[in-house]
Amino acid sequence: MCQINEEDDEAFQALKAAAENKTAISRKCMSCDQDACVVVRIADPMCRKCFEEFFIHKFRSTLSKSNVFGRGERVLIAYSGGPSSTALLHLIADGLSVNARRRLQFQAHVAYIDESSLYPESIDIRDKVTDLITNRLQHPLHIVPIDDNLDKDHDFQQILTQRTKSLTAREELVRRRKLKLLFDIAIRENCTKLITGDNCTKLAAQILSDMAQGKGAHVALECVRIHS
Ligand SMILES: [Zn+2]
Predict the structure, then answer these.
(1) DSSP letters spanning the chain
(2) How far is the CA of 20 from the centre of ligand 1 (A)?
(3) Domains of the chain
(4) pLDDT of amino acid 9
(5) Span 173-188, mean pLDDT?
(6) ipTM
(7) Ligand 1 center to residue 138 CA distance, Å?
(8) Distance 56 CA to ligand 1 centre (A)
């Protein structure tokens, strides 16, 4: 997001060294007495199995209490193949399964923005995404290239190199382009909500970046995780 070389920063190096030397959590799981691997809610140690159960329960109870999604509503899930949206996709797929407690009731559609014209190596990711969504999870999949609906004489790579002068501007343009395409897919497929796999770290980075770019009062509008 920013262009400062973090590797040269003394504070960054100190934090990195501290993280590498961090010892494993030497506490027992609060639920089953196995060795804990994570501490949640400040002081509750949990093993992997108990943490997964806790996390899935939290996800479903939060959604069901909020009544965000109506029964049978068409909802578009933005999937990039990265860890956050993969976790989101699996949480939703699990919640939609017939045997799930507090079963989710909406219809899930999945959107993937194909960035292979910018990053040729991402063709492999696209193939894996197609296999996962279509064959294993069996949700409708909508793949749209990042060059979609552009003037035939220009591709997105050209626009990026010709019209932006900094890495920050390029990242912002790519982010906005992807969001625009996701909205287009949602409208075309009659999906009334769009879910993206943002996490707290991404949102924090986005807020700081937006503030640094002087967006002021619009910062709050840039960080909505469920778009209706
Ligand atoms: Zn446990």
Answers:
(1) ---S-GGG-HHHHHHHHHHHTPPPP-SB-TTT-SBP-EEETTTEEE-HHHHHHHHHHHHHHHHHHHT-S-TT-EEEEE--SSHHHHHHHHHHHHHHSTT-TT---SEEEEEEEE-TTT-GGGHHHHHHHHIIIIIII---EEEEETTTT--TT--HHHHHHHH--SHHHHHHHHHHHHHHHHHHHHHHTT-SEEE----HHHHHHHHHHHHHTT-GGGHHHHT-SEE-
(2) 25
(3) 30-67 (no CATH), 70-227 (3.40.50.620)
(4) 61
(5) 92
(6) 0.97
(7) 32
(8) 14
